[in-house]
Amino acid sequence: MKKTALSTFALLFAAAGAVAATDVLLVDTPTVIEIEVDAADLARCQETLAQVAQMPVVTDNGSATWFSNAGDLPQVACVLKDT
How far is CA 26 from its chain centroid? Predict the structure, then answer.
């Protein structure tokens, strides 16, 4: 019985280590969402994004997260429309 428990415990730690190693080795390319605006709205768009950046990170249901890893979130930029 002890061998089974120890084997299960060892396999559990090995699986957790494999998941952690995979997360470290994966290279994430940053996602940039571009909002196209007219020249007249560019300053307002940038101001709004600056205000949103100061808000806390929350889950989909609005509750606060235990950790704030904003680096995982996509970047947003205001760009001028091609006319």
Answer: 14
Distance (Å, whole) CA 42 – CA 81: 10
Q: SS3 of 25, please?
A: helix
Tokens encoding 21: 């190693």
Rounded to whole angstroms, the Cα distance separating 57 from 55 reads 7
**Which residues are CB-contacts of 39 (< 8 A; sequence separation ≥ 6)?**
80
Query: pTM (2 decimals)?
Result: 0.54
C-alpha 9/C-alpha 2 separation (Å) is 10
pLDDT in tens, 15-34: 777 777 676 666 666 689 99
Beta-sheet pairing, 75-80 with 32-37? parallel
Q: Which of 40, 45, 34 is nearest to 74 (CA)?
A: 34
